[in-house]
Specification:
Chain A: Pfam families: PTS_EIIA_2. The complex is a heterodimer. Chain A is an alpha/beta fold. Chain A contains 5 helices and 5 strands. Chain B has 3 helices and 4 strands, in the order βαβββαα. Classes of the chains: A alpha/beta, B alpha/beta.
């Protein structure tokens, strides 16, 4: 099981704003929930400018996986936002290309090289058009958490020892 | 055939390069190719300029290197994955 924390406080529905506004709100929420350091916010925003994380998928839904260096992170966590209107993100590895992102998976990762299971499950998830669509159409935060839990086999609890 | 040194890089050296690294590892095993995989941040590539045979990366490459560079985004999205794998295999078999 991938040891990543996710609960309803880390899920955003019908989110609006520009790319940077959205990233800031998601990151600040992770700070508020005591899962990352305050420096995570600027870390995420700067990293996205330098190394964009927008990913077009085989479906009409593009995703983004913003993340930053491990020193900004207190605990492995994943925050998810469903955007009301797609926000323009640059495509990973392609400075000149943008993609309209509808779902953001913000990753707070604490160890390097140790999160392969989660990442692979996440990439498989992105290649599954039906499930992406179901996720995007989720009506409640509970539905989002349940779906992601099932697909990514998350297991971490929020506080203390595992 | 000499063992190839392959750099696998992304922005942070923790997320997407992890996925790509393990995929190449499996691929090499499947084709019985012995390969020296090094997972790094894209900013660290310069340290390997003299020794690397190939760079596989999800990040954008602004510098030119004396070895080929292959974009690895398809490992994340599945789009064009077969072509990317062929490209990498070709380089490993050289």
């Amino acid at each position: 099981m991938a040891e990543f924390y996710l609960d309803e406080t880390l899920v955003f529905l019908q989110m609006t704003g520009t790319r940077e506004e959205i990233l800031r709100e998601m990151a600040e929420n992770l700070v508020k929930e005591n899962l990352v350091e305050a420096s995570f916010v600027s870390g995420i925003i700067e990293r996205e400018k330098e190394y964009p994380t927008g990913l077009p998928t085989a479906s009409s839904i593009s995703v983004a996986i913003p993340h930053t260096d491990i020193e900004h992170v207190k605990k492995n966590a994943i925050s998810i936002a469903l955007l009301q209107e797609p926000a323009a993100f640059q495509v990973m590895g392609e400075a000149s290309m943008e993609t309209p992102v509808s779902i953001i998976f913000m990753l707070a990762m604490q160890q390097s090289h140790a999160q392969l299971r989660l990442l692979r499950d996440l990439m498989n998830f992105f290649q599954d058009e039906t499930t992406l669509q179901v996720l995007y159409e989720s009506k409640t935060k509970e539905d989002v958490v349940k779906l992601i839990d099932r697909k990514l086999s998350l297991s971490a609890s929020k506080g203390g020892d595992r | 055939m000499a063992k190839k040194q392959v750099l696998v890089a992304c922005g942070a050296g923790i997320a997407t390069s992890t996925v790509v690294n393990s995929a190449i590892e499996e691929m090499a095993k499947e084709h019985k190719i012995d390969v020296n995989l090094i997972q790094i941040k894209i900013a660290e590539v310069n340290a390997y300029v003299d020794t690397a045979d190939l760079l596989v990366t999800t990040a954008m490459v602004k510098t030119s290197y004396p070895f080929p560079v292959i974009n690895a985004r398809s490992f994340l999205t599945g789009i064009g994955l077969a072509e990317t794998k062929d490209q990498i295999l070709d380089e490993l078999k050289k």
